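Posting this for the archive.
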Amino acid sequence: MNHKFKVVFMGTPEFAVPSLSALCELGMPISLVVTQPDRPKGRGRKLMPPPVKTAAQALGYEVWQPDTVKSEAFYQVIAEYKPDLLVVVAYGNILPKRLLELPSYGSVNVHASLLPKYRGPAPIQWAIINGESETGVTTMLMDAGLDTGEILMTSSVAITPEDTAGTLHDRLAFAGGELLKQTIAAMAAGNLHPMPQNHGKASYAPLFKKSDGYIDWSEPAAVIERKIRGLNPWPLAYTFHGDRRLNIFKAQIRPATDDAPPGTVLPGFSGELRVATGDGALSILEIQGASGKRLNIREFLSGHGIAPGTRFQ
């Protein structure tokens, strides 16, 4: 590619790493990588770097982790780099309009949905939970709104019946990097034609809280099964056996065999944990107790007897 854009890259989680790698593969001069500060993680609450920081340092780029992007000092630092392009992928903060308008070629974002559907921070999870058969990635020119900017390019990705938010995330992250390469190449060739979004067809994908994983067994089995996949690996779908929390990683839809109340463990299925729902039943395949490991159901039941007729809360 003959035309090289001087880039400032902003991103934080694993989803953004393929896009950073894509810019590197294109040979774009990346002046600076901006990412979130290190955060405490895990039971030990040890400070851990964001994935973009780790990747950027491995590639030899300068990394900056400011506490805020809304200060005059932050703006002035970015302005001193005189970027042609700001590339933003899941940075984690709303960016000021003044900053977005600073680069001479504008600010480009990679978003994990086919905009205008699923604007917001959790498009991957909601696409699975809502039963979509496909989703995708979009590159857009950023404006002051939340994922409301003009669309540059899109790429569709199928959602399989086995997909979790984790598996779909990985495919979309790769697709995002590939689409960013195509977008930058088209921009360099002068072949991009930004298209306004149809705001009347927009939908929003809000962030999840841990409590959102609670399973309502009165819902249909198909709805619960999608929720289990859509919330895996975080925040995880869960239920209660007495006062014990059980995280559910995987389940299969099964026919109901009697009129037991929703949440009831059904009899007659040795080595299986089949639970009545509001419509049909679910066979739980992978589960985790409050302080245990993720286990297949036979392993779990060998150490945790759950009698037929038990009702999950």
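The mean pLDDT is 95. The chain has two domains: 7-201, 210-303.
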